[in-house]
Amino acid sequence: MARRTKNEDVIPQIAQLFGLLFLAALISPAVRAAIYGMGAVVVGLLVIALVGLVVYRLVTGAKRESQLRASAVVQAARPDATSTDHFLVITKPALQTMPTPLVPSVPGAISIDTTPTTRPVVNLEEQLYAIDWFQFEKVVAVMFRDQGYAVTRRGGANPDGGIDIIIEKPGERAGVQCKHWQKWKVGVRHVREFFAALTDAGLQKGVLVTLCGFSREARGYAAGHAIEVVDEPKLLAMLETVGARFNPEILSLLDDRRKMCPKCGAEMVLRTATKGRGAGQQFWGCSNYSKFPRCPFTMPL
Prior knowledge:
- This protein is α/β, with parallel strands linked by helices.
- It has helices at 6-27, 29-38, 40-77, 124-130, 133-146, 188-200, 216-223, 232-241, 248-255; strands at residues 150-153, 165-169, 172-179, 206-210, 227-230, 268-272, 282-286, 298-300.
- The protein folds into three domains: 6-77; 124-257, Trna Endonuclease, Chain: A, domain 1 (3-Layer(aba) Sandwich), CATH 3.40.1350.10; 259-301, no CATH class.
- Strand 4 (206-210), helix 7 (216-223) and strand 5 form a beta-alpha-beta unit.
């Protein structure tokens, strides 16, 4: 409740006093005669007091009515009607959601499936066996590049001296040989040949990558000559560390089913023998067989 001021207490008392004098003048001739003797000033004051009293009553009544209405609004907004606090609680209106419009079926309209789809899981093992040596060598190169190495490819169909890739980091330089063998293990003879190639290139370290693994003698020789051997399980683990399943470049190479000629690098095509013992059988032949310079390389299907 608002605190009443001193003026609000005095004004109605003065107005009431003048009101009593006015009533007394109407009733008592003696009071009326005294007032007449005081002159028109007293009469004017009486009239002003009476008017002020009426106006005061009207104003205070309206003010009290507005206060009561405000108090009722605050009381209704409180979560607990018995609470003694004076904070106004404002509730936020709930958001309205628009109903999903019903789209009528239109003959000939194209239906779009908005169901979220997920990419099928890539089987790295199967993909590595399905690609050719050319893509395999590129996959290994991208893998080392994503590990932070500077990569230089020396292989392909050109003579590489036994080193397909050179990888470099500050203070580290190594040669990499890739053997996309699917039926034979790498023997000690091939590791010796790789070590000789590293020595000729002035490289102190090597990495030999294959799918079918290594013989016991090959692993022993590699361990004594700073050659890291990478078989299928280790290669798969290395590919996982660089996120090969989500790398568009690696996925594109794994989806590439072309066979490339190891002699000239051209694409191999499937042909059928027309004469000799293998007449009627299919084989892989270089697409440059009938071109210049001619490449007669072939391989069994």
